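Appendix B, record 7
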Amino acid sequence: MTHRIVIVGGGAGGLELATRLGKTLGKRGTASVTLVDANLTHIWKPLLHEVAAGSLNSYEDELNYVAQAKWNHFQFQLGRMTGLNRETKQIHLAATADENGAELVPARSLDYDSLVIAVGSTTNDFGTQGAAEHCLFLDTRKQAERFHQQLLNHYLRAHAGQDESPTQINVAIVGAGATGVELAAELHNAAHELAAYGLGRIKPENLRITVIEAGPRVLPALPERIGGPVHKTLEKLGVTVLTNSAVSEVTAEGLHTANGQFISATLKVWAAGIRAPGFLHELDGLESNRINQLQVRPTLQTTRDDNIFAFGDCAACPQKGTDRNVPPRAQAAHQQASMLVKSLKARIEGQVLPEYKYQDYGSLISLSSFSAVGNLMGNLMGSVMLEGWLARMFYISLYRMHQVALYGMFRTLMLMLGSRIGRGTEPRMKLH
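Structure tokens (predicted):
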């Protein structure tokens, strides 16, 4: 009987794994590979801040799962995982409804021999009062597009108005991690672009952006030599950066901090902290931690079931040589997906599974068209600090590498060429 591999989650890691397994095991008939996701299309999550600001049209950069499955010898199932039966080796999927509420795809179960869970993470508001009700999040394309539409609506209302007094928009971003600082810079760029397109009733300087960080500095997860230049660049752009300012409450009017400060805000974005989806907590007896991540061994198998693997942000994987877990970063998910291609082949052949060792190749932060900062790490060159144009080019190359993993080199080059040609016929901002 053909070995059944089911991958739940079509993010960067899950989609790359399904594609590579389909090209090898699926094409040869060694295994049947099925990818499950609640959406029909994929967009690279690190691009969501650009979708939110309007500098990226998500419809142009999306990938269709059905087409990708056809091209790469795997199957796609639309659905959201809600449960697991480890005894019968089945996952349960909820029914999917259309925009009118009518059932589109019924609830059902899928059988597996090897199950891989790669459902990523969502933003963690830490139970802060009012955050869920009054803040926007950037976990999904739909959420990013909602933020963009709300921002654009303010400009359109001001553009159509008769009042000559200046109009101001206050944007508060909670969290000075990569998402928060990149969004702040992208919004600053958007303000100038929107004014250039004639929506100038709201002047660029009247889009007031505040980044609020509970810790002592921006980019707390990265080296200080990266965070320092980023902080200075944000301030040069006119972004207000508040550190040591934990948010205690969010209201319709703004945010209250634990140190007694109030930040007035028209639009509020929560971009601090992560947690895995809630359904993973004690999923049919699997071990999970306080932020719902599944505990896995270095083989990426869950601690209580050798038939179930987890990787990426939804997995708590021990980092060799330390007392910490592997950080929830895109490069870790990419490395783990690459290893699992070998692991699942070895499992089918009855061989010993490899163990994952995290390799930190550095970090890159893009501040829209204004700058980029980062460091590259390697065995030969050690750690190299990058800034400006060169760092920006390396940052862009990360997305191109993701595209190569999914499309191959030739199709990626065609996509790059099409994007270059389209620049002359499309607006630089998404204006709808």
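Remarks on this record: The chain is about 35% helix and 25% strand. Residues 141-160 form the longest helix (20 residues).
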